[in-house]
Amino acid sequence: KRPRSMQVPYEIKPSSISGHGVFATAPIARGALLWKYEEGQSVVEHDEESLRARLKALSTAQATELLEHVYTWDRYVVEILDDGKFWNHARAEAQNTGNHPDGEPPGDGLSSYALRDIAAGEELLDDYSLYASLDWFEALCVECGAASCLSVGTSLA
Q: Gene3D superfamilies, per this entry (predicted)?
């Protein structure tokens, strides 16, 4: 059974980009809602204090894994609670997901939409370089030996 936040048929499988990725299992039309951002359902928003508290309960390996599967938005670090955490990065020219291609509305500015038609079997990709820069989070990632989404996005941009 797929998580409620995922709105399209998909599978998680090995990615040629990094680790595992989210792949469409059916064609997806431009503008389709792919993943719904819902605080407390699909994500938890962390400020520095709550993220540090969350990390204290984890091993070093678990903390690195968590830090490498969150993203920054506005003033928060967003922990994804479902398979959306496997979304991989692509340069802007290869990105096929993001904010709604026609703006807000119809998009909500938080969820992920298809920027163009996506074929079955294609990996869903976002441009990490567009995420917010939070100095405290970047420093925490360096401290823990983790690569933040922003550092991945800007190093590969």
A: SET domain (2.170.270.10)
